[in-house]
Amino acid sequence: MGYHFMQDFFDRVWAQGDLGAVDEMFDPNARAGGLVPQLQVGPEDFHIMVPALRHLIQEIEVKIEHSIQAGDWLWSLVRLQGVAADTGRLGVITGQVMCRIEDGHIKEAYNHFDFMPFFEQLGMLPENTMETLMTGGTIG
Predict the structure, then answer these.
(1) Residue-range definition of the domain harbouring residue 68
(2) What whole-number percentage of the chain has pLDDT above 90?
(3) Model-level pTM?
(4) Which pick of 37, 61, 95, 125 has the fewest CB atoms within 10 Å?
């Protein structure tokens, strides 16, 4: 299951915007951490987040770079790229997803994606945002 399950999830949900896949692949009580700081999201939240992101970013492509499975747990290194809808600029982000899968459903998931450089590449944040903040500067 492993690699193919995750690739199918990302292709259907994020690249194609198939919200039915969220309901098929997530347990209704599942929670995913790490997508929104200090908040765990459930399948219903994906019905809001996916269209919101797909409105900003088009031509989304996702590739599972590496995947390791141990029992019910699956860890994947994910590469996502997309084009900003308003600027046409390309952005690439890598992140990690660790989830527990039972009976073909995600029961729990933990994500780690650094969206700041991604949104900077797309032109949604000023260049060198991280460097500016690390040296005590502010943006905006």
Answers:
(1) 2-129
(2) 76
(3) 0.86
(4) 37
